[in-house]
Amino acid sequence: MELSFPSASEWAALHQSLPAALAEPCYHPAWSEAARQWERALPGPACAIARPSAGQTFLYPFLRHALPFPLSSAHAVPDSPEATEVHLATRPTAAHAATHPVAPQPTNRPAHFTPHDIQSPYGYGGPLFVGDWSADEKIDALQSLARFLREQGAVAEFIRCHTEWCDTDTLAAAGYKVFQVRTNVECDLSKSDFTADWAPSARRNLRKAQSAGLYWRQARNPADIDHFHRLYLSTADRLSMAPHYRFDRAYIDALLTIPGLHLLLVEAPAPPPTTHPAEKRNGPTQPHHPPDPPQAPNARAGPGVLLGGALA
Questions:
Q1: Alpha carbons 298 and 278: distance in angstroms, whole number
Q2: What is the pLDDT of residue 190?
Q3: Is residue 262 within 8 Å of 312, Cβ to Cβ?
Q4: What phi, psi does 115 have (nearest 5°)?
Q5: pTM of the model
Q6: How far apart are CA 290 and CA 114, in angstroms?
Q7: Counting Cβ atoms within 10 Å, is residue 25 exposed (0-12), middle (13-18) or buried (19+)?
Q8: Number of neighbours of residue 182 by Cβ within 10 angstroms
Q9: Lowest mean pLDDT segment, chosen from 41-45, 157-161, 214-218, 237-241
Q10: Do you find a cis peptide bond into 303, omega within 30 degrees of 0?
């Protein structure tokens, strides 16, 4: 199957043309570029696409990482679907992960050959098939991709797959070893009471938050993002998070350029002033009162006391 490698503008246009249900931010070129810079991945093509017929699109974002050791015969992977000896990626993964062993060229390596591994950008990713694809067509696309990556010097793939779009049978037939490494919290927001399936403790915590007046709002300006980033790094220190989780401000700014992606902040109402003496204004004493709480605390414009945030 013929593959092509779009420019950033072509890739962005392709993302814009995806069905709304499939246009996840992690498939946008800005997401991959932010990850490439943060992870210090190698330059070069970062997305493969195939369009074998009208209505069919295969999209595969990827990053190339230099090997942390010199390649030798001890590290070579046999060109066999059963070979899974090389697992080079050590970064945390989400939902599902798949490794696809790709053997390096044993002889007559091209001049551009640089041994490396392939990883999907941090977050959900993996192969995306749009339109009607048979299992054989999907396998053909994935194996065509493996041949290209092998020719470029890849010795292994490590991809994180979307929880809803991980076709484990097709991946296994294409040579991947598929395994689940984390159970994420998922919530079906289409239900009238989407908390019905939550654990009792989670529902109790939500009621406590609502009774305390917590609310959410969208970050609107650089000061909001600064405040969130300071809180994020403080949390990273408190939890002793690994360095690759301590995203810098540039990473967050880059993600917020993706259409439809927003930073949502969770805040508590600002406390009233601690001590304010009564004021005289040409007449009787006038006590200082805090503002009234909003009628719809889950959609305030702010500001308040920032408690957390999330990209959504």
A1: 33
A2: 81
A3: yes
A4: -60, 135
A5: 0.74
A6: 64
A7: middle
A8: 12
A9: 157-161
A10: yes
